[in-house]
Amino acid sequence: MVATAATASLFPISSSQPESVAKNSGKHGGGGQNTVDMHGIKPKSRGLQVKTNAQAPTKVNGTRIGVMDGLKSDDNPTSTAPRTFINQLPDWSMLLAAITTIFLAAEKQWMMLDWKTKRPDMLSDLDPFNFGRIVEDGFVFRQNFSIRSYEIGADRTASVETLMNHLQETALNHVKHVGLLGDGFGSTPEMCKKNLFWVVTKMQVLVDRYPTWGDMVQVDTWVAASGKNGMRRDWMIRDCKTGDILTRASSNWVMMNKVTRRLSKIPDEVRAEIVQYFVDTPPIVDDDNNIKLPKFDDKTANHVRNGLTPKWSDLDVNQHVNNVKYVGWILEASFFFLFNDLKWKSAPQTIVEKYELASMTLEYRRECMKDSVLQSLTSLLGNDQNALGDSHVDCQHLLRLEGGGGGEIVKGRTKWRPKNANRNKGIEDESG
Amino acid sequence: MVATAATASLFPISSSQPESVAKNSGKHGGGGQNTVDMHGIKPKSRGLQVKTNAQAPTKVNGTRIGVMDGLKSDDNPTSTAPRTFINQLPDWSMLLAAITTIFLAAEKQWMMLDWKTKRPDMLSDLDPFNFGRIVEDGFVFRQNFSIRSYEIGADRTASVETLMNHLQETALNHVKHVGLLGDGFGSTPEMCKKNLFWVVTKMQVLVDRYPTWGDMVQVDTWVAASGKNGMRRDWMIRDCKTGDILTRASSNWVMMNKVTRRLSKIPDEVRAEIVQYFVDTPPIVDDDNNIKLPKFDDKTANHVRNGLTPKWSDLDVNQHVNNVKYVGWILEASFFFLFNDLKWKSAPQTIVEKYELASMTLEYRRECMKDSVLQSLTSLLGNDQNALGDSHVDCQHLLRLEGGGGGEIVKGRTKWRPKNANRNKGIEDESG
Fold first, then answer.
1. What would you report as the CA-atom Rg of chain A, rounded to the nearest whole angstrom?
2. Do β-strands B303-308 and B374-380 pair in parallel, antiparallel, or remain unpaired?
3. For A314, which of A256, A310, B153, B414 could close a Cys bridge (C-beta 3.0–4.6 Å)?
4. Neighbour-count burial for B21-49, b at 16+ CB within 10 Å, e otherwise
């Protein structure tokens, strides 16, 4: 039930495979295919409707207006009694219409309520303050975000860092909404007592389409067990207007001691707090550990950059570099490599207009502190450099401590595609 | 009526003075003094209430529930007819109470409406979707922001970059709400026709207190003429809970041609679009150009950093480095200089816990593009380096193109203070 923006781990993690991730993601379908099975969460054609199969932990049908089965209260997070008082109202839609008539004066508010009455399938998603709410029998947290002007790049679309920021925010708000937010950055009360906080060991993100400035997106998140001492957190981002799936992400987390900075087993008291929120579904992005990445170092890598230093603003409340910040370094290295070194059929000025990140897997191996000096390695993975053209490109990445020892901070892989390529066909087609 | 996140200018700008800015700001009072005059916008003791004097462009009394004098519609931005239909309702507060009883099921929503009914002075500020709305006779745009987990630093408070992002967002939404948003980043329809966009020439920010994670802040913004061919945009940020003023900011803008990258006069057609929204009040932060900063270069500066390069993610839709991004460079240089070179009575690890930026003035002189390589200069201003102790420190900053010519990109000054120092006394005391 908990997850934070913390980073790093000394956990032994085997490599996973971008091809298989992409392939599997295709099974779940892309933005334009709203009928595919997504490990138990099956989107329907009317956007925000979500329906589950027998395996799924959740149960929501957007067309049943006002029904919020099993919605849990912040005051009593363990309660499983459904709150159905809305169902007792004689005519919810008429009441809403009346409210729509009198409630607000300002134009935008009128527009918004009007929009909601026109889309009855969205009524169960009412969350006017965008604080988020628990849905799907209490196992899924859902929050909307409006893409702001400062969250977009030169091409007007949100960056993957923006999306990952929203993932972090929903994870923390999920913990908060079930009443488990202690003093820490997602730590539960029992974790705080024991000086523990969450660190991410792995993050997989598949982006089918990037939202643009002004778009409203809906982020769903849920948690599951991951081995004996880990937790998995998954997310799904949808376009609120079309219902298209924009992004799927899956992550793994373990606990670290704030003082010793060593990993910890999950104490029984903490397990008792969180286990009730675990769902029993496979990850929304398959974790395939069978194929190893080729080894590479600063002598064999295609591109090496030295002397990277974290800024003060890169640190989070756990006093280390926030996991999202690594993405900026890796993206910048990718752009530099792909388009400066390889000159991927594009003048540098138009790079961000033409190409985009399709998917990314990051494995966090060690904390990065303020005084760390890093080396960033990038190489093409598999592809023939001379045959780049407009095809897709896989890269591998390594951020490690500079000089002596070469302690690995983050290992990662990225997959790049020309923009608009197969955008509506899902990622499966793109990796095929 | 318009402003964007664009940067840079070749405009001749005279230097301004941090001391006088801070002094003047004191006139407006700090967060703890809610009775001070703020150039015509006089806050009262009940937080979000705003009242104006004879000079002010606005007129709102939060205690008169439901009265929104002169609220303008997006559909008809030039209309001056007040929209008073809410006043015709027999009993707004009773209706609202009824709505509060039936409207929403989720816990957060209940809490929020309940909070609003308990604070009748805030009823005129209803904006449940946080899209923002026009207030104060149509001249002020107001939007709320919840401080998110990814907008804070290691000390849990929002960074000044976060605050400036919110300033940018409200500026753009202001333009949007009055129906003047063309295709560009804050450009009006007539500006788009003429290939013009806004660039900022000066930004002054005074921070009395930084909000923390989970706080809700209210940002007010308005525009005024600035010389013959410029526009001024001011902002005020308040804590929604306490009503305290957290931040005041004032900025100046001119127009640039997208193709020639040269500055332009304001064409008559554009002036006709925007002039109706100009208020006739002095800046919320006084602009004092009388005192010049001492000249300094890489030989005389206390601290020099070479080889700064913009990242792809630093660019905005105007294809140059966004004005907020400079702040990151300047803050990082300040931290490095003040706490690594000067060792301001603090171990580096606790710097961000102990010190904070009190105010900042940036003068943007030239665009910075993706391929620019910058040099960052920092020096103490006035203070005796040996007498730093816990006192306040003024710095001057220069970002310029590296090597040959040394074209100036941004000149700036910052004022730093120990955290919690005079926090509730306003900035006047701190600069005294």
1. 22
2. antiparallel
3. A310
4. bbbbbbebbbbebbeeebbbbbbbeebbb
Number of Cβ within 10 Å of residue B300's Cβ equals: 11
CB A304 within 8 A of CB A376: yes
Catalytic: A320?
A: yes
Q: Going from the N-terminus, what domains does chain A have, and what CATH number goes with each?
A: 18-60+136-431 (3.10.129.10)
CB-closest option in B102, B109, B165 to A128 = B109
Q: How many helices (H) and strands (E) does chain A have?
A: 9, 15
Euclidean distance between CA atoms B78 and B56, whole angstroms: 19
Q: In sequence order, what are the residues at sequence separation of 6 or more whose Cβ sits closer than 8 angstroms to the Cβ of residue B66?
A: A105, B86, B87, B89, B92, B123, B124
Query: Chain A neighbours among B 104-123 (CB < 8 Å)?
Result: 104-109, 112
Q: Are strands B216-226 and B230-239 parallel, antiparallel or unpaired?
A: antiparallel
ipTM: 0.72
Per-position DSSP letters for A137-183, written without gaps between them: TTTEEEEEEEPPGGGB-TTSBBPHHHHHHHHHHHHHHHHHHTT---S
Helices B92-102 and B107-118: crossing angle, nearest 10°? 160
Q: Whose CA is closest to A331, among A378, A368, A388, A383?
A: A378
CB contact under 8 A, B313 and A161: yes
How do the pLDDT tens digits run along chain A, 432 residues long?
A: 544 444 333 333 333 333 333 333 333 333 333 333 334 433 323 222 233 332 323 433 222 222 222 223 333 333 333 332 333 334 444 444 444 433 333 333 333 333 333 343 343 355 666 788 999 888 999 999 999 999 998 888 999 999 999 999 999 999 999 999 987 789 999 999 999 999 999 999 999 999 999 899 999 999 999 999 999 999 999 999 999 999 999 999 999 999 999 999 999 999 999 999 999 999 999 876 645 778 888 888 988 988 888 888 888 888 889 999 999 888 888 877 776 666 555 555 555 667 789 999 999 999 998 888 999 999 988 755 544 555 678 889 999 999 767 699 999 999 988 887 645 444 333 332
3-state helix, strand, coil in chain A (%, to 5): 25, 25, 45
Contact B317 A89 (CB under 8 A): no
Is A168 close to B146, i.e. CB distance below 8 A? no
Q: Catalytic residues of B, which ones?
A: 318, 320, 368
- Of A119, A288, A151, nearest to B150 (Cα)? A151
